Amino acid sequence: MSDTPELLFPPPLTADDAESYLDLRRRAVWFEAQNHWSLITGPSAADALNGLVTNDVAALEVGRGQHAIALTAKGKVVCDMYIARLDDQSFLCTVIRDSAAAWLAMARKYINPRLAKVVDDHESWATWMVFGAQAAEAIASLGGPSEEADSPDALAARITRLEQWPVWGHAPWVIGSATVRLIRAPVMGALPGFVILARAEDRSFIQSQLAASPYRRGSRSVWNVARIEGGRPAFGVDMDDNTIPQEANLDVLGAISFTKGCYTGQETVARVHFRGHVNRHLRGLRATEPLPQHARVLDEAGKDVGDVRSTVISPRLGPIAMAMIRREVVPGSPVRVQLGSREIVAETVALPFEGN
């Protein structure tokens, strides 16, 4: 059997998905999320977590969060995550479900249970995301802050507050009879958006409130197009446990502190940042026909310089993809994507794609 991976072509969006995509840019869309939440709590939680991830957890104020990465001792990506500081001794962490086992195993291996506890908290929470040009209006129409008094100007005040919400900031928010945690999450390029984190017992109620709203529900296909346009790598597709964070642009995306103390895998990350460079980068590709995942990428001289990772057909940009490509291939360079006996000419672009 051949070890060559199968070429996977992206399907076009359905008519309903195409409308949802348009709504992202003119209104707002809500998505069901597949987050896996864990809780790190205890008197030494900040220090323990700070020794495991790339960002500066100890510097987080209560009510703030950050993007971070957990690494192997050799500086390769275990998972990327969002971390929210709930109080002086408690942090909520979320990863994609496929990364949960690896993250929990790492946290339990390295965090002394006498100093901080690692709790698999995924059954306690339900998660949605609301994104789009009018995400603030969509969230404001669902509810407001717990301390808000009813007034004729309440909706306008909520919209203004949400538009000024700090990036990765989080706080309680009331939707009907339920109090949720609202998080501003910059995970779709320039498109604004929020995560709604609800207690599991409020799952059905929040789902019904979103379904009854005038905003369209988005599919994973729509989310994937917007994610790729925004240049956000997905673990297991664009990066894996052979990836150094800077290869996936995670430094540019704000997931790494270069001034904090030691953490697992720091030596590799610091060496790349201060004394060298990575040999490959995640780049965008634009073409006139769909680009298959796993296809090899050649430069103008015919040299193999990388492979196609995430790939979609954007209603706005046409066929686009993210590819891991040798650093010598700079944005603006033409490349050729191999499809067996023929090739597709594509242009290399910097991420995120134009307009994101």
Beta strand %: 25-35%
What is the strand arrangement across the widest sheet?
Answer: 8-9-10-7-1-11
Provide the residue-averaged pLDDT: 95
Annotation, overall tally of beta strands: 17
Q: Summarize this, please?
A:
This protein has 356 residues and is an alpha+beta fold.
Question: How are the elements arranged and paired?
Answer:
Blueprint: H1 15-26, E1 29-32, E2 35-41, H2 45-50, E3 65-71, E4 77-87, E5 90-96, H3 100-110, E6 117-120, E7 125-131, H4 135-142, H5 154-163, E8 170-175, E9 178-184, E10 193-199, H6 203-212, E11 216-217, H7 220-229, H8 266-275, E12 280-287, E13 296-298, E14 304-314, E15 318-326, E16 334-339, E17 342-349
Parallel strand pairs: 1-11
Antiparallel strand pairs: 1-7, 2-5, 2-6, 3-4, 4-5, 7-10, 8-9, 9-10, 12-15, 12-17, 13-14, 13-16, 14-15, 16-17
Helix pairs in contact: 1-7, 4-5
Architecture overview:
22% of the residues lie in helices and 32% in strands. The protein has 356 residues and is α+β, with helices and mostly antiparallel strands. The protein has a domain at 1-26 and 279-356: Elongation Factor Tu (Ef-tu), domain 3 (Beta Barrel). The strands form 3 sheets. A 6-stranded mixed beta sheet has the order 8-9-10-7-1-11. It has a 6-stranded antiparallel barrel with strand order 12-15-14-13-16-17.
